[in-house]
C-alpha cells in the first residue's frame, strides 16, 4: 500500500493543473482501494457548505450542483466533526441524506475523511461501495494519508486562484502577504518582469579574458548610470536617509565588492555573464539563509543588481512598461529600489511583490514615500494579474483582485479617513512623546545602515535604541578591518550626535553565518550565535570594540550592547575584552571614555539573572521578537506555527512586566526593541509596565507618539492591570481593541476585519 500511495502522490504532484490533479486523484484512489466511488467535496467558508467538485462513480452532472451545509448529511458530518466516518450501511445512519442527482442510492458502504490544512477545513474525501463493506484500518489509514497530502496542494491552489471557490462570484479573489508599508490604495495591476534570468546563463570559456573584463566594466558603468538616474527621479520625493540607499547600490557595484570577485572568476577562465551569475547566486544563497530579516533582504539588492548588469552584458533591455496607468499598482516577483525609481511618482499607488519582507530596501523607501506595500505574497498568480482592477491593503498585507462594489465602497471610506489622520499626525511629530498627565517616554529608532541618520529624524527621537553592526560584515569577502569599521561607526555616531546610539556587537552564528565564516548546525536557533561566536573568536570582537571606541572620540554618545547573553560569565568575559581594548588604545596614545554597556534580554534564562547582571552592566535592552520565539517555542518564519507567535501572549506580557519591575528595583534603565514597541497598544502597555524607553522602526513613530500623547499614564496602568488578568491572546487583543475604541484611538490601529 505504501508503494501505491507513493505513486498516487507522485502523479498528483506531477499533474499539469489542479483540476487534472483532482481527477487523477479520485481515479487512482478508487483503483487502489478497489471500490466503486471516490469523490472530493470542497468546503466553502462563506457558505459554510460543501460542494461536490470531482467524482468517479457518481453522476458527473452532480459536480458543482450538490451542496451540503456544514453538519448536514454524512459528508457534512465528517466536516463538522473533523474526523473520519466509516459505515458499512450508510443509509441506516440518521444523518444520511439522499441526492437524486448523484445516483448514490446504489451504494451502501461509506468512508469519508476530512481534508484539513493548518486547522482550516478545506474539504472531504469520500469512497463508497455498492456491496456492504466495512473498510478496514489499512483502508482508512490510506485515505487519511491521501487527505493529508492533498491538503497542502489544495491550500496552495485556493490561495493562488488556481481553484476558485464556487461562492466567489465575479472572480473576486484575495491574496495574503507581509505588510511592509502601511496604507491602502485602489488601482490597476501592472506586472513587471526582471531584466534578466541569472539561473539560465550557460558556462562558457572566454577566448579573450581582457575583453570579458572590459565588457563587465562597461555593463557595471551602465548599471551605475541607471541607478543614478532612478535616484535623481526620486530626489525631491524622499529624504536624504532613503535616498542614501541608492549609495548602497553604488557601493555594492564597486571594485571592493561584486566587481572585484567577478573579475577574479573571469581571470580563472569564465566568461563575464557566467562569472557574474555564479558570484551573485553565491551571495544570494548565503544571504537567504540568514535568520535576521533585515540582513536577509540584502539578497534582493544583490539579485537586482546582478540582473541589471547581466541584462547589459546580454544587451537586453529591462522589461518595464513604456507607459503606466494613472493608478498603477506595481506587481512583480521581486521589486527593487531601482525599479521604484523608474515609475512616475504621480502614477504609482502601491507595490506588491512575491518576494521580500518589511526590512527590504524597497520597503524602507516605500514607507518614506507613503506608498502602501505588501511583500512576500508567495501565492500570487502573476501571469493572470496584468490589467486587473485591484485593491491593496498595506496594513493587513492583503491584495483583493477584482473587488466587488461593497468592498470598494468600504475601502474608499477607509482611505479617506486615513488621509485625514496622516495630515493630523504629521503636525505632531516634533512634539514631545509625553502623556497628558506629564509622563515622558523617550522614543528611539532601530537602524542598520550607516546612512540611516538624517536631520529630520533627529528632532523626533531620543536616540538610536539598536544599531545592527552586521551589515559591513555581510557585504565583504572578509572580516572588515578596524579602519573600515571605525569609519562606518563614526558616520552613525556623528549623524545622530549628541543623541545616544546603542551599537550591538556582531550578532552572527547558526543560520546567520558569513560567506567566509561558514557554520553548519542541526538546530541554528539553539546553536552558536551572538556572543557565543564572538567570545570564541576574541580577535573579531576586539577589532570591533576598538573600532567603536575610536569612533566615539569627542562624541561620547556610544553605548555598547551584547547580544544573545545566557550566562553572567559571558558578560564578565566581554567586559574584560572591552577594558583591554580601552587599555590598548591608551597605550597607543588614544584616550577614550568607557561607554555605557548593556545586555540584550532575549534568552529566557536571563529573566532569572537580573540581579547578577545588574552588578555588571549599565542598562538592559529587551529583544522582544527573539524573546517571544524562545518563550513560546515558535519559529515565526515557519508557516505551520507562525500563527502561534503573538507578542501579546499573556506569558510574554507577564515576563515583560517582571523584567520592568526588576529593572526598577535594581535602578537600571530598560528599553525594548521589537515589533511590540512599534504597536500603539503595545507601547501603552510597555509604558505602564515601566520601560524607560522604546525603540522601533522609524515608520512606527507617528502612531506610537500619538497614542502616548493621548492616554494618561494612570489610564495606561489601569489598562495593564485589566490585561494581566486575561488568560488568552485573543482576549488580550479584544480588550485592547475595546479600550482603544473607548478612547477614540482605534484609528491608530490597522483596520480590522
From TrEMBL:
<keyword id="KW-0670">Pyruvate</keyword>
<dbReference type="InterPro" id="IPR008279">
    <property type="entry name" value="PEP-util_enz_mobile_dom"/>
</dbReference>
<keyword id="KW-0808">Transferase</keyword>
<dbReference type="InterPro" id="IPR036637">
    <property type="entry name" value="Phosphohistidine_dom_sf"/>
</dbReference>
<keyword id="KW-0598">Phosphotransferase system</keyword>
<dbReference type="GO" id="GO:0016301">
    <property type="term" value="F:kinase activity"/>
</dbReference>
<keyword id="KW-0418">Kinase</keyword>
<keyword id="KW-0460">Magnesium</keyword>
<keyword id="KW-0479">Metal-binding</keyword>
<protein>
    <recommendedName>
        <fullName>phosphoenolpyruvate--protein phosphotransferase</fullName>
        <ecNumber>2.7.3.9</ecNumber>
    </recommendedName>
</protein>
<dbReference type="InterPro" id="IPR040442">
    <property type="entry name" value="Pyrv_kinase-like_dom_sf"/>
</dbReference>
<dbReference type="Pfam" id="PF05524">
    <property type="entry name" value="PEP-utilisers_N"/>
</dbReference>
<dbReference type="InterPro" id="IPR015813">
    <property type="entry name" value="Pyrv/PenolPyrv_kinase-like_dom"/>
</dbReference>
<dbReference type="InterPro" id="IPR000121">
    <property type="entry name" value="PEP_util_C"/>
</dbReference>
<dbReference type="InterPro" id="IPR050499">
    <property type="entry name" value="PEP-utilizing_PTS_enzyme"/>
</dbReference>
<dbReference type="GO" id="GO:0046872">
    <property type="term" value="F:metal ion binding"/>
</dbReference>
<dbReference type="Pfam" id="PF02896">
    <property type="entry name" value="PEP-utilizers_C"/>
</dbReference>
<dbReference type="GO" id="GO:0008965">
    <property type="term" value="F:phosphoenolpyruvate-protein phosphotransferase activity"/>
</dbReference>
<dbReference type="GO" id="GO:0009401">
    <property type="term" value="P:phosphoenolpyruvate-dependent sugar phosphotransferase system"/>
</dbReference>
<dbReference type="InterPro" id="IPR023151">
    <property type="entry name" value="PEP_util_CS"/>
</dbReference>
<dbReference type="Pfam" id="PF00391">
    <property type="entry name" value="PEP-utilizers"/>
</dbReference>
<dbReference type="InterPro" id="IPR003018">
    <property type="entry name" value="GAF"/>
</dbReference>
<dbReference type="InterPro" id="IPR006318">
    <property type="entry name" value="PTS_EI-like"/>
</dbReference>
<dbReference type="InterPro" id="IPR029016">
    <property type="entry name" value="GAF-like_dom_sf"/>
</dbReference>
<keyword id="KW-0813">Transport</keyword>
<dbReference type="GO" id="GO:0005737">
    <property type="term" value="C:cytoplasm"/>
</dbReference>
<keyword id="KW-0963">Cytoplasm</keyword>
<dbReference type="InterPro" id="IPR008731">
    <property type="entry name" value="PTS_EIN"/>
</dbReference>
<keyword id="KW-0762">Sugar transport</keyword>
<dbReference type="Pfam" id="PF01590">
    <property type="entry name" value="GAF"/>
</dbReference>
<comment type="similarity">
    <text>Belongs to the PEP-utilizing enzyme family.</text>
</comment>
<dbReference type="InterPro" id="IPR036618">
    <property type="entry name" value="PtsI_HPr-bd_sf"/>
</dbReference>
<feature type="domain" description="GAF">
    <location>
        <begin position="17"/>
        <end position="164"/>
    </location>
</feature>
Amino acid at each position: 500500500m505504501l508503494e501505491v500511495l507513493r505513486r498516487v502522490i507522485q502523479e498528483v504532484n506531477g499533474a499539469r493543473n489542479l483540476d487534472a490533479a483532482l481527477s487523477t486523484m479520485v481515479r487512482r484512489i478508487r483503483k487502489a482501494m478497489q471500490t466503486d466511488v471516490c469523490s472530493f467535496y470542497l468546503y466553502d467558508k462563506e457558505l459554510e457548505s460543501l460542494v461536490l467538485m470531482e467524482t468517479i462513480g457518481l453522476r458527473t452532472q452532480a459536480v458543482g450542483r450538490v451542496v451540503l451545509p456544514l453538519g448536514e448529511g454524512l459528508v457534512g458530518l465528517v466536516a463538522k466533526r473533523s474526523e473520519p466516518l466509516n459505515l458499512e450501511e450508510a443509509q441506516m445512519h440518521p444523518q444520511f441524506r439522499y441526492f437524486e442527482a448523484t445516483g448514490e442510492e446504489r451504494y451502501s458502504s461509506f468512508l469519508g475523511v476530512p481534508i484539513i490544512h493548518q486547522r482550516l477545513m478545506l474539504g472531504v474525501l469520500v469512497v463508497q461501495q455498492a456491496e456492504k463493506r466495512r473498510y478496514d484500518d489499512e483502508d482508512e489509514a490510506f485515505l487519511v494519508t491521501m487527505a493529508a497530502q492533498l491538503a497542502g496542494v489544495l491550500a496552495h491552489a485556493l490561495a493562488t486562484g488556481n481553484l476558485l471557490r464556487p461562492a466567489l462570484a465575479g472572480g473576486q479573489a484575495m491574496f495574503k502577504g507581509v505588510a511592509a508599508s502601511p496604507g491602502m490604495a485602489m488601482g490597476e495591476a501592472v506586472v513587471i518582469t526582471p531584466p534578466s534570468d541569472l539561473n539560465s546563463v550557460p558556462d562558457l570559456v572566454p577566448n579573450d579574458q581582457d575583453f570579458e573584463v572590459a565588457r563587465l566594466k562597461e555593463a557595471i558603468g551602465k548599471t551605475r548610470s541607471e541607478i543614478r538616474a532612478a535616484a535623481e527621479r526620486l530626489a525631491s520625493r524622499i529624504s536624504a536617509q532613503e535616498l542614501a540607499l541608492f549609495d548602497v547600490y553604488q557601493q555594492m557595484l564597486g571594485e571592493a565588492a561584486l566587481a572585484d570577485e567577478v573579475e577574479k572568476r573571469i581571470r580563472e577562465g569564465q566568461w563575464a555573464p557566467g562569472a557574474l551569475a555564479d558570484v551573485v547566486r553565491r551571495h544570494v544563497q548565503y544571504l537567504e539563509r540568514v535568520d535576521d530579516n533585515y540582513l536577509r533582504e540584502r539578497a534582493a539588492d544583490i539579485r537586482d543588481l546582478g540582473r541589471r548588469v547581466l541584462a547589459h552584458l546580454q544587451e537586453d533591455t529591462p522589461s518595464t512598461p513604456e507607459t503606466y496607468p494613472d493608478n498603477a499598482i506595481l506587481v512583480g516577483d521581486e521589486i527593487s529600489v531601482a525599479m521604484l525609481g523608474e515609475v512616475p511618482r504621480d502614477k504609482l499607488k502601491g507595490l506588491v511583490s512575491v518576494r521580500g519582507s518589511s526590512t527590504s530596501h524597497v520597503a524602507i523607501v516605500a514607507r518614506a514615500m507613503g506608498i502602501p506595500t505588501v511583500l512576500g505574497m508567495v501565492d500570487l498568480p502573476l501571469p493572470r494579474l496584468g490589467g486587473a482592477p485591484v485593491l491593496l491593503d498595506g496594513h493587513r498585507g492583503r491584495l483583493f483582485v477584482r473587488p466587488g462594489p461593497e468592498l470598494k465602497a468600504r475601502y474608499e471610506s477607509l482611505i479617506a479617513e486615513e488621509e485625514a489622520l496622516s495630515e493630523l499626525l504629521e503636525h505632531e511629530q516634533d512634539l514631545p512623546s509625553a502623556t497628558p498627565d506629564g509622563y515622558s517616554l523617550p522614543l528611539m529608532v532601530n537602524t542598520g545602515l550607516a546612512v540611516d541618520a538624517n536631520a529630520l529624524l533627529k528632532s523626533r527621537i531620543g536616540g538610536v535604541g539598536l544599531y545592527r553592526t552586521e551589515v559591513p560584515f555581510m557585504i565583504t569577502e572578509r572580516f572588515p578591518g578596524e579602519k573600515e569599521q571605525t569609519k562606518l561607526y563614526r558616520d552613525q555616531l556623528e549623524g545622530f550626535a549628541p543623541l545616544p546610539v546603542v551599537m550591538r556587537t556582531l550578532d552572527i552564528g547558526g543560520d546567520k553565518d558569513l560567506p567566509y565564516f561558514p557554520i553548519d548546525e542541526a538546530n541554528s536557533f539553539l546553536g552558536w550565535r551572538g556572543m557565543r561566536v564572538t567570545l570564541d573568536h576574541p580577535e573579531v570582537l576586539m577589532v570591533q570594540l576598538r573600532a567603536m571606541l575610536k569612533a566615539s572620540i569627542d562624541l561620547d554618545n556610544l553605548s555598547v550592547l551584547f547580544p544573545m547573553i545566557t550566562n553572567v560569565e559571558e558578560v564578565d568575559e566581554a567586559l574584560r575584552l572591552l577594558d583591554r581594548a580601552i587599555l590598548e588604545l591608551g597605550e597607543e596614545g588614544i584616550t577614550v571614555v568607557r561607554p555605557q554597556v548593556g545586555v540584550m534580554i532575549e534568552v529566557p534564562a536571563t529573566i532569572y539573572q537580573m540581579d547578577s547582571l545588574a552588578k555588571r552592566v549599565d542598562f538592559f535592552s529587551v529583544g522582544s521578537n527573539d524573546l517571544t520565539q524562545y518563550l513560546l517555542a515558535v519559529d515565526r518564519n515557519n508557516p505551520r506555527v507562525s500563527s502561534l507567535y503573538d507578542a501579546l501572549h499573556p506569558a510574554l506580557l507577564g515576563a515583560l512586566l517582571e523584567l520592568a519591575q526588576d529593572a526598577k528595583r535594581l535602578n537600571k534603565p530598560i528599553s525594548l526593541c521589537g515589533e511590540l514597541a512599534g504597536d500603539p497598544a503595545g507601547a501603552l502597555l510597555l509604558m505602564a509596565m515601566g520601560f524607560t524607553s522604546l525603540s522601533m522602526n522609524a515608520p512606527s513613530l507617528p502612531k506610537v507618539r500619538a497614542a502616548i500623547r493621548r492616554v494618561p499614564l494612570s489610564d495606561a496602568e489601569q489598562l495593564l492591570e485589566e490585561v494581566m488578568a486575561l488568560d488568552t491572546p485573543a482576549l488580550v487583543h479584544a480588550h485592547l481593541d475595546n479600550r482603544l475604541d473607548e478612547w477614540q484611538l482605534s484609528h491608530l490601529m490597522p483596520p480590522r476585519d
